[in-house]
Design a protein that fits this description.
alpha+beta, Multidrug efflux transporter AcrB transmembrane fold, elongated, 26 helices, Alpha-Beta Plaits, 17% strand, 6 domains
């Protein structure tokens, strides 16, 4: 160590060159760091979503979800498999160990009007931004072509529904035939057989009757209608709208991509009357969090510099020590970049400038002491060299002891590791940088800023400064304490026991709640409610929330989108509530008070239960545990009635616990269904198979895609050969 120190002090400009490289590299790294409000705590998971048209929740569970769960078992480093079975939807979440490569686990699992404007224009424009995984459309009506078949017309022409399905499927395709040569030219053969709109669809031949073709339009009414949907989006109590949710790839720079999204949206050319209005922008949370971190770091740095100036007694020496603060931070940024950690509340908020400057303070103070006490005709360079050698080992051991405190954090796994490891990486990298600076850079700087003169500052021997008086008082207090050792020891033990006893009365939580500046109100109606009625209640909920002056905008997501990234049914909804800054509130003084008043107002709407949370908090809870509450109790078993009974009993017990709030039980039953039982004897008499009945029901009332119509870059399904029954008995 002494040789390295001597070599660097003999080549001080080399130290400055190295320091310049560190500064440039650190600043460049800092500018490239991903910015987030909070560390990514999501586990290593793959979500398999399967659309199951026409299947009830029980059939989805038995025929799709359970077989998929069984297949997933036995994969390497598998931790958990959880699933949800809903009407026409199966969602299986497979969680792996954090050490597994995120793309390898996907390979192992092998996954997988305004609405038209969103689906085919806005969505694909945003997907061109690197780092975006998906732009999911939610709400509105998806365009489809339908043919309402008249049973009497089918009988008149002796046709079956199967004939219609076959004809539509076989009369809508293009084809090719290689090429031919003619007159020294080569011509590609291309057959155009795709239909182009309702007119072509209606002219599809079904059969020939007496030499006259029977066309589809003769037996069916052709329309453009919306597809069956399992969700909707509403805004500000004024009715339905269409929303798009941008999903980022894990590990991407959220702040940078959000800026690119805003730039892309600003450049989109929309038809008259169409507007893109953000209702939840995570960049505001990121900016507020980073601003808080910057403010705290700046205030801490100023405080440390002031203290150094007071106790070192020399502004040049204080400036040298203070310089190690931003330089150590650059080392921290480089460590974050090396380990793929974003700049967020946890990774930056735990940096302690007091520990960072410890080594430099010891080094500078010792250099000052040797310079002021030197009575020989030695140069400042030689004095600093000797002073640096003297304290180099204590400085190394002192910083290494602090670093050793963080080593156990690196052994944490799972959620705890994802939570606290970024903090440990940043702090250890900054401390390692501070050690390097204290040993090599600070002595070099001291050779330039220190002068051979009598120091009469705070710690000087000459001149009875205030620090000497404080030191004298401390020496007298220490001598007095040594005379009363037993009293002090027993007193200290008593304080420790009191502190340990107080732990029983102190609440604990895994992490503090980050105020995101907005809230999400999850509402649940009775299972089995229709989408139309659920939308009506959702609008009523929005109007109630909008009556509060603190609320600026409301968007409600009800049910699930076309690509089911949610497993909600139509009786469930999430209402995103944007709020004014808290200093502009009128009727409430805190977020807790606002939640209480909102709950009282919303409880006037019968048959609805509510949960209050925040957007990021909700997503984090749901992703990690599969539930949205702080504490969840899951009951497993084969019988749904028994599970329902036990669930109600558990909810009653949990709600009686002191401190429990918004205790709810997830409803998985209660939705009505119409069951069709096939009379096999009668079916055999008429030569009808189960598959024939299945085809009729799925084609007329289900979501079975029969064909597809291409309009430029857009594709729309041809579905449903029957009208929706307004009355069950009459329709079926």
């Amino acid at each position: 160590m002494n040789r390295i120190l001597d070599a660097l002090l003999n080549n001080r400009w080399l130290v400055f060159g190295l320091l310049l490289m560190i500064i440039v590299g650190g600043i460049a790294t800092m500018l490239q760091l991903p910015m987030e409000a909070f560390p990514d705590l999501t586990n290593n998971q793959v979500v398999v979503t399967v659309e199951c048209p026409g299947m009830s929740p029980v059939e989805v569970e038995q025929l799709v979800t359970y077989p998929m769960e069984t297949v997933m078992m036995g994969m390497p480093k598998l931790q958990t498999v959880r699933s949800t079975s809903k009407l026409e939807l199966s969602m299986v979440t497979v969680i792996f160990d954090d050490s597994m490569d995120r793309y390898l686990i996907r390979q192992l699992v092998a996954e997988r009007d305004e609405k038209t404007l969103q689906d085919w224009n806005i969505r694909y424009s945003l997907l061109t931004i690197p780092g975006i995984s998906e732009v999911n459309s939610w709400g509105g009506y998806t365009k489809q072509y339908t043919a309402e078949v008249d049973p009497e017309s089918l009988r008149r022409y002796n046709l079956t529904l199967h004939d219609v399905v076959t004809a539509v499927s076989e009369n809508n395709s293009n084809f090719g035939g290689s090429y031919i040569e003619h007159a020294e030219q080569q011509y590609t053969l291309r057959g155009i057989g795709r239909v182009d709109g309702l007119a072509d669809l209606g002219d599809m031949p079904l059969t020939v009757n007496g030499g006259t073709p029977v066309l589809l339009k003769q037996v069916a009414t052709l329309k453009i209608e919306p597809m069956l949907r399992h969700g909707a989006v509403m805004r500000d109590g004024q009715g339905e709208t269409v929303s798009g949710m941008v999903i980022l790839l894990r590990g991407e720079n959220g702040g940078k991509i959000l800026d690119q999204i805003k730039e892309k949206v600003a450049g989109l050319s929309l038809p008259g009357g169409a507007q893109i209005i953000p209702f939840y922008d995570q960049s505001s949370v990121i900016e507020a969090t980073i601003h808080t971190v910057k403010k705290n770091l700046f205030e801490a740095a100023v405080l440390v510099i002031v203290v150094l100036l007071i106790f070192l007694g020399d502004w040049r020496a204080a400036l040298v020590v203070a310089l190690t603060i931003p330089l150590s931070l650059l080392f921290g940024f480089m460590g974050m970049k090396w380990f793929g950690i974003s700049a967020n509340l946890m990774s930056l908020g735990a940096i302690d400038f007091g520990t960072i400057v410890d080594g430099s303070v010891v080094m500078v103070e010792n250099c000052i002491h040797h310079v002021e006490s030197d009575r020989d005709d030695r140069s400042v360079l030689e004095i600093v060299r000797g002073a640096a050698r003297e304290v180099s080992k204590p400085v190394i051991f002192g910083v290494l002891i602090i670093i050793a405190v963080y080593i156990p954090i690196f052994t944490l796994e799972g959620l705890e590791g994802r939570m606290f490891r970024p903090m440990a990486v940043t702090v250890v990298a900054a401390l390692a940088g501070s050690l390097f600076l204290a040993l090599f850079v600070v002595p070099t700087l001291c050779t330039f800023v220190l002068r051979k003169r009598t120091y009469v500052g705070a710690s000087g021997e000459e001149g009875a400064g205030w620090f000497n008086r404080v030191r004298d008082w401390y020496e007298r207090s220490l001598q007095s304490a040594q005379k009363r050792r037993r009293i002090l020891v027993f007193g200290a033990l008593g304080l420790v026991l009191i502190a340990l006893g107080s732990l029983k009365f102190i609440g604990t939580e895994f992490m503090p709640t980050l105020d995101e500046g907005s809230m999400v109100i999850t509402s649940r109606r009775l299972p089995g409610i229709s989408l139309t009625k659920s939308i009506e209640i959702g609008t009523q909920i929005e109007k109630t929330i909008r009556s509060f002056p603190e609320v600026t905008s409301i968007v409600t997501k009800l049910g699930r989108p076309d690509l089911a990234t949610e497993a909600m049914d139509v009786h469930e909804s999430d209402t995103y509530v944007s709020l004014l800054p808290e200093d502009e509130w009128k009727c409430c003084h805190s977020k807790e008070e606002l939640e209480q008043k909102l709950e009282v107002a919303l409880n006037r709407i019968p048959g609805v239960s509510y949960e209050f949370t925040q957007p990021m908090q909700m997503r984090m809870d749901e992703t990690i545990t599969g539930t949205r509450g702080d504490l969840a109790l899951k009951v497993f078993g084969p019988d749904l009635d028994t599970l329902d009974s036990l669930g109600h009993k558990a909810a009653a017990i949990v709600s009686s616990v002191r401190g429990a709030s918004q205790t709810q039980m997830e409803q998985f039953s209660g939705a009505e269904e119409v069951q069709i039982h096939i009379n096999r004897v009668a079916a055999a008499r008429y030569g009808v198979k189960v598959s024939d009945v299945q085809e009729v029901i799925e084609s007329m009332y289900g979501s079975r895609e029969i064909s597809e119509i291409v309009e430029g870059d857009q594709r729309f399904p041809v579905e449903r050969l029957g009208s929706r029954p307004r009355r069950l008995r009459r329709g079926l």
